[in-house]
Design brief:
- It is a single chain.
- The protein is α/β, with parallel strands linked by helices and 257 residues long.
- It has one domain: 3-Layer(aba) Sandwich (Rossmann fold), CATH 3.40.50.720.
- The protein is 44% helix and 12% strand.
- Strands 2-1-3-4-5-6 form a six-stranded parallel β-sheet, with helices on both faces.
- Helix 1 links the parallel strand 1 and strand 2.
- The radius of gyration is 18 Å and the shape is globular.
- It starts with 15 loop residues before the first strand and ends in a 9-residue tail after the last strand.
Amino acid sequence: MGTSYTHHPVTVEGKTAVVIGGTSGIGEAIALSFASDGADVVATSRTPKRVADTAERLRDRGADTIETTTDVTDRASVEDTRDRTVEAFGGVDVLVTSASAIARTAVTETTEQEWQDVLDVQLDGVYRATQVFAEGMETGSIVHVSSLAPQLAPPNLSTYTAAKGGVDAYTRAAAKELAPRIRVNAIAPGYVVTPQNVDLIGEGTEARERIRERCPMGDVADREEVAGAAVYLASDAASYTTGEVLTVDGLFGKSVF
């Protein structure tokens, strides 16, 4: 009888996950995918109504949840989310950071305030959430939502690009320090239609047509296709994967010709 090989299933069933920035865009898709896969999920953001609406959709998918707002620019707010989740569920297995802020300005026109506001959410928020939740996790997985921007350097997004580049570097640094107890990875999505960019790459825009011409997969990604990568990284199937920035872009970034 030969040796039997197997692997951990790609599932987050039975886990408790917190998705910061989980009430819209990619973060919401990740939270709902986790819930559909059998996880208990706390999807949080700064907006009470969005938190309540998303909590209802999570419950519709069978997940237990609590409703709490989180402002990643405020350490006490992040700590409160962690403490409330631990009190309700006994611990946290998965943290996803997907809070977002953006400034569409040229390098020479970006103000000090715009620079600070974007970094305070996109980079400093990742640092705060990682540090706060790592203190309360015995073992687990942290997944940051980064971007293809550090690879492409799109125009008029220098602040966002710099912040996401920092997220990529911080992911690797945190992964090394927190191993083997906690795995830390990031996802770098390509073009995905979200409330932040629907006016730029939504159906019928010139940019959407250019993406279709360049991308080997023929179009932008659905949010759920990015969420699938988060399910993998959060699952035990990725038990030896850490410090990685997983690109999910349909090969757009490497399709120059």
